[in-house]
C-alpha cells in the first residue's frame, strides 16, 4: 500500500497548492475516510469476471488510474 500513500501525498500537495490553509484538505480527508474505499486492481478484475465480464486489456494507465476494456459475456440459455 505504499502506492496508496504516495497517491495521498501527491493529492495533498495539489490541494495545498490551491488551498494553503489546510481546511480544504481536512474536509477532503473526512469525506475520504467516510466514503472512499480504494481497492486493488487485481481484486477489481476478479469482481468484474465474477459479474460475467471478460477483461480484454488495460487500455491506459494514467498515474493512479487504470482504464480497462471489458465485455459482458452472454449467458448460456438452458
List keywords for this structure.
2 domains, 78 residues, alpha+beta, two-stranded antiparallel ribbon, 2 strands
Brief description of this entry?
The chain contains 3 helices and 2 strands; from the N terminus they run αααββ. With 78 residues, it is an alpha+beta fold. It folds into 2 domains: 1-38, no CATH class; 39-73, no CATH class.
Fold and architecture overview:
This protein is α+β, with helices and mostly antiparallel strands. It folds into two domains: 1-38, no CATH class; 39-73, no CATH class. The chain contains three helices and two strands, in the order αααββ. A two-stranded antiparallel ribbon has the order 1-2. β1 (53-62) and β2 (65-72) form a beta hairpin. The protein is elongated and about 60 Å long. The model has no long low-confidence stretch (mean pLDDT 87).
Radius of gyration: 18 Å
Calculate the terminal CA-CA distance, rounded to whole Å.
44 Å
Structural class: alpha+beta
Instruction: Determine the mean pLDDT.
Output: 87
Strand content: 15-25%
Provide the domain count.
2
The H/E string reads: HHHEE
Poorly predicted sequence stretches spanning 5 or more consecutive residues: none
Indicate the overall shape: elongated
**How many strand units?**
2
Major sheet strand order = 1-2
The number of distinct helices, counting runs of at least 4 residues, comes to: 3
Outline the biggest β-sheet: 2 strands, antiparallel
* Helix content, binned percent: 40-55%
Q: Topology, please?
A:
Layout: H1 2-18, H2 23-35, H3 41-50, E1 53-62, E2 65-72
Antiparallel strand pairs: 1-2
Amino acid at each position: 500500500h505504499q502506492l496508496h500513500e504516495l497517491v495521498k501525498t501527491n493529492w495533498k500537495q495539489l490541494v495545498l497548492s490551491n488551498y494553503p490553509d489546510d481546511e480544504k484538505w481536512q474536509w477532503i480527508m473526512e469525506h475520504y475516510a467516510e466514503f472512499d474505499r480504494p481497492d486493488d486492481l487485481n481484486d477489481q478484475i476478479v469482481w468484474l469476471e465474477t459479474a460475467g465480464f471478460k477483461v480484454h486489456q488495460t487500455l491506459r494507465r494514467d498515474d493512479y488510474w487504470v482504464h480497462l476494456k471489458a465485455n459482458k459475456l452472454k449467458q448460456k440459455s438452458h
